[in-house]
Design a protein that fits this description.
CATH class: Alpha Beta
CATH topology: Rossmann fold
Radius of gyration: 17 Å
Distance between the termini: 38 Å
CATH architecture: 3-Layer(aba) Sandwich
CATH superfamily: Alpha/Beta hydrolase fold, catalytic domain
Number of domains: 1
Number of helices: 13
Number of strands: 7
Order of helices and strands: EEHEHEHEHHHHHHHEHEHH
Structural class: alpha/beta
Length: 265
C-alpha cells in the first residue's frame, strides 16, 4: 500500500524551504512567512498527521518522530537540491529528526524551541525541567478521558501561553484547537520517547538558527540548554518578551530573523 501524502501549501520559486508547524496548529501558521519568502524561495508547508487537511495517523502502533518525517519525506526528495527546514515546537523536533535521517538533503535549519523532551529526561531523570509539560499533558489527558475537549485544550494552551490564554482565544479558533488536542498523548509519546541521543545531534553538520523566547517555559528552555551546546554550527537568538508561541503571536519579529538567516546560508 502506498504511504499517505500530506497536504502541502506551496508558493514561490527558487531554493526550497520546508516549514513544519507546531502542535494544535497547521500549515496555515506559516502563511505570513510564506508570503515574505516567496519572491526568493520555493516555500512548502505540509500539514502533519491529523492536522489541517492531512490524513490522520491510521495505525495501532504509537507514532514516532521518524513517522512524522516519513510523511514529509517526498518534500526532501533526493532529486532536488538540499532544503532548508523551518520548524516550531513539535515541528522543530521533526525538522531535527529529518536532519538526522537525511543529512545530505538538509541545507540548514531554522528552529523555534524544538520540544525534544527525551533529551531532558536522558540528562536528568524526573523531576526535571520537563515536568511542566509532562504535568500539562497528564491534565489534558484526564480531561479527554472525561469527555471534556475544551478543558483539555485549556490545560495544553495555558501551559504554553500562560494562564487565561485559552479563555482569551477567539471563539472561532477554539474548536479546531480543541479537536486537535485529542492527539496530546500521541505528541507526548513521540517527544518523550525519541531514541536519538545527544551525541547524534552533535553530528548535525548543517547551520542551525536556534530561536527561543525569553518568556517561554522551563520545559522549552530545558531542551535549549542541552541542544544548543551540542549543535556544531548553531547561532542562537533569544527574543525579549516572546514566549513559546512566538512564531504565532509575533510572526513579523520571528519571520524577519528567519529570512535573514536564509540569506546567510
Amino acid at each position: 500500500m502506498n504511504p499517505p501524502l500530506p497536504f502541502v501549501r506551496e508558493t514561490g520559486a527558487g531554493a526550497s524551504v520546508v516549514c513544519i508547524h507546531s502542535n494544535a496548529s497547521s500549515s496555515s501558521q506559516w502563511r505570513a512567512l510564506m508570503d515574505l519568502l516567496a519572491p526568493e524561495y520555493r516555500v512548502m508547508a505540509p500539514d502533519s498527521y491529523g492536522s489541517g487537511k492531512s490524513p490522520d495517523w491510521r495505525s495501532d502502533r504509537v507514532i514516532s518522530l521518524a513517522d512524522e518525517v516519513a510523511l514529509i519525506e517526498p518534500l526532501l526528495a533526493p532529486a532536488q537540491s538540499p532544503v532548508t527546514l523551518v520548524g516550531h515546537s513539535y515541528g522543530a523536533a521533526v525538522a531535527l529528526k529529518a536532519a538526522l535521517m537525511f543529512p545530505a538533503r538538509v541545507r540548514a535549519l531554522a528552529l523555534y524551541e524544538p520540544t525534544l523532551f527525551a533529551l531532558v529526561d536522558a540528562a536528568e531523570p524526573p523531576p526535571n525541567q520537563a515536568d511542566g509539560i509532562r504535568n500539562a499533558v497528564h491534565a489534558a489527558a484526564a480531561s479527554l478521558d472525561a469527555g471534556d475537549l475544551h478543558s483539555a485544550a485549556q490545560a495544553f494552551i495555558d501551559y504554553w501561553m500562560g494562564a487565561g490564554s485559552w479563555e482569551r482565544t477567539p471563539a472561532n479558533r477554539r474548536q479546531p484547537i480543541a479537536e486537535s488536542v485529542v492527539n496530546v498523548r500521541r505528541w507526548a509519546h513521540a517527544l518523550f520517547t525519541e531514541p536519538a541521543g545527544i551525541d547524534e545531534f552533535r553530528r548535525i553538520d548543517a547551520p542551525v538558527l536556534y530561536m527561543v523566547g525569553k518568556r517561554s517555559t522551563a520545559s522549552a528552555h530545558g531542551v535549549a540548554d542541552i541542544l544548543i551546546p551540542a549543535l556544531p554550527k548553531v547561532r542562537t537568538v533569544a527574543f525579549e518578551g516572546l514566549g513559546h508561541m512566538g512564531p504565532i503571536t509575533h510572526p513579523d519579529v520571528v519571520n524577519a530573523e528567519i529570512k535573514g538567516f536564509l540569506a546567510q546560508v
